[in-house]
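Lecture 7 notes: from sequence to structure.

We start with a single chain of 225 residues. Read the sequence below before looking at the structure.
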Amino acid sequence: MSLISRIQNRLKYGLLTRSVLLRLRKLNITFTPYFLYLEKDLTPHDDVHTYQVERVTWDNLEHIIEYFPDPTIRLKTWRRRLDAGNSGLLLKDGDEMVGYTWASLKYCRGVAVRPLFELSEKQAYLFDMYVTDAYRGRRIAPLMRQMCYAELGGLGRTELYSISEYFNRPARRFKEKLGAVPVELRLGATLFEHIRFDVRLRGYHRNLPTRWWAVSNHPDPKAIS
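Now the structure, written as tokens:
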């Protein structure tokens, strides 16, 4: 039995548990199984016309960032994202900030290897969605996803990818409720904070966008974080 087959079996039968992964993490060795998802459009949300969508730009960046936790950290990160050509969308309720989400139009990232593959003109990678405390529990997350689909669709980006860690059950359930389908099960690994690699454990479709194996020595060279 190959090494990849062994890892697949251990994931399937729960032998490679989170406790083992946490112990390895203390040694600066991380193994993170995750799914690459292809997301599809949603059924229109009842509140779709209640909120407004605004793009994150250099002009409004410093004004809007103060409405979210850790504004200093976010300001530095968001500047890197804009500089790298990523697209940020705000969801607003009048003057109130409801949340935000980001998309890369250039690269899809993995857990350890970033970028995982270069996007075509019809693809986008979705990441970092946040809803403010005041609006949680109102099904805002799927609404934000729908508006993101609409904005990207207007740019011709209809093939949308995202990732969720294997053990993050809530995130996986959220994706599945959206109608997202798993494209691949992959394993990202970091050894002693310097060596990073990513391997495909299982592919669910033909013509997969990724290579089965990828290596990187850079933590996040394309500002997708």
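The first strand starts at residue 29 and ends at 39. Keep this in mind for problem set 3.
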